[in-house]
């Protein structure tokens, strides 16, 4: 086993990974305690909020999300059961489903986004300027 110092590229990767894990854990904890949703749930709501009133096909959502199609489908199922999103047939392609925020989903997103942005501000600024 080598006792040499890690390469700069490895150190950079570990720094990025550490920042990501601290931030995502803080986000998940805060979103869960305030709103009963996880980070992936919020990220899905956040992506849908960017579409506004436009139709968002599940296929399009899958392309802009880092999650797999299967994981995203499960999240949308859970959000639909909670009354935060709705799914319906696409008006231009019967084979596609569109998904959008309900009024409850818009409110949840708006409220959760404040916490999300605060946590991002606090954790990312702390990572950029360690004590």
Explain this structure to me?
Pfam families: MarR_2. This is MarR family transcriptional regulator. It comes from Arthrobacter horti. Keywords: DNA-binding, Transcription, Transcription regulation. Residues 1-131 form the HTH marR-type domain. This protein has 131 residues and is mainly alpha-helical. 66% of the residues lie in helices and 9% in strands. It is built from 5 helices and 3 strands; from the N terminus they run ααβααββα. It has a 3-stranded antiparallel β-sheet. α2 (39-51) crosses α5. The longest helix is centred in the N-terminal third of the chain and has 28 residues, at 8-35. The protein is globular and about 60 Å long. The two termini are 32 Å apart. The model has no long low-confidence stretch (mean pLDDT 91).
Descriptive labels:
131 residues, 66% helix, mainly alpha, MarR family transcriptional regulator, WH-like_DNA-bd_sf, HTH_MarR-typ, three-stranded antiparallel β-sheet, DNA-binding, globular
Largest sheet, if any?
A: 3 strands, antiparallel
User: Helix tally?
Assistant: 5
Distance between the termini: 32 Å
User: Strand share of the residues?
Assistant: 5-15%
Strand order in space, largest sheet: 1-3-2
Mean pLDDT: 91
What is the share of helical residues?
55-70%
Low-confidence regions: none
Shape: globular
Radius of gyration: 18 Å
What's the SSE pattern? HHEHHEEH
Structural category: mainly alpha
């Amino acid at each position: 086993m080598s006792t040499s110092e890690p390469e700069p590229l490895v150190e950079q990767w570990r720094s990025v990974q550490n920042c990501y894990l601290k931030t995502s854990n803080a986000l998940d904890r805060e979103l869960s305690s305030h709103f009963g949703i996880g980070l992936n749930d919020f990220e899905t709501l956040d992506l849908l909020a960017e579409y506004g009133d436009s139709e968002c096909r599940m296929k399009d959502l899958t392309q802009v999300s880092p999650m797999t199609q299967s994981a995203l489908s499960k999240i949308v199922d859970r959000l639909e059961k909670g009354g935060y999103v709705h799914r319906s047939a696409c008006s231009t392609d019967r084979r596609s489903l569109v998904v959008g925020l309900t009024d409850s989903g818009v409110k949840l997103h708006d409220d959760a986004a404040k916490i999300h942005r605060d946590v991002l501000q606090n954790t990312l600024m702390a990572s950029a300027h360690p004590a």
